[in-house]
Amino acid sequence: xxxxxxxxxxxxxxxxxxxxxLGSAVSGYLTFAAAGVSNGxxxxxxxxxxxxxxxxxxxxxxxxxxLTRSVIKSTNSDSxxxxxxxxxxxxxPSHRHFFDQGTAVLFQQTSAxxxxxxxxxxxxxxxxxxxxxxxxxxxxxxxxxxxxTATDATTLTTSTIPSHMHLGMLPQDWQAGSPVNASHxxxxxxxxxxxxxxxxxxxxxxxxxxMDVRVQYVDVIxxxxx
Length: 226
Ligand SMILES: [Fe+2]
What we know:
Layout: E1 9-12, E2 15-16, E3 20-25, H1 32-35, E4 42-49, E5 52-61, E6 66-67, E7 70-74, E8 83-84, E9 87-91, E10 104-107, E11 116-119, H2 142-145, E12 221-225
Antiparallel strand pairs: 1-3, 1-9, 2-8, 3-6, 4-5, 4-9, 5-6, 5-7, 10-12, 11-12
The structure holds fe (ii) ion (FE2).
């Protein structure tokens, strides 16, 4: 962006539509150099010449004290006005230095700058880059997702444990309340008794896994131009 300097206003004896040779400071103002313009810098200039005017961006050259002209807007259908030889040239902001009203911008500070209004529609959210329409979405707050230090608790069920079998033994000929084979070593003789079984193990409790996603962050605000 072309640079701005304060109170720079000079005369020019240049005629025509070409580059300007700067003269002296208008009474009550400063030369470009005194205002702080350095050799080779591009500034936004304004020209007032009778009933004509022009605004543009030009490169200042200290040697010869000249200023090129690239017109942004003018009273000559946005082309360079033809100078009479007695114009004034000054440094001024153009529309390129300002945001349109309602422009939304991020600021890394708590309060919106002067001339801007802080927006509070969105809070505790992350930023996403898109190539299409700018919208919003999602369901979990930034601080919720990025505050986690473990996965959510999960309880295993039959469908989520590995396939397996248990070794056990029941008399092949056992029937409740009935006599059993006297030769069976686990039952013995006489009335029936249930066979062996494995011991119980496991609790059915849930478990979690460690997962620290407490990413470092910097807060920004969204503010719109008043
Ligand atoms: Fe697990």
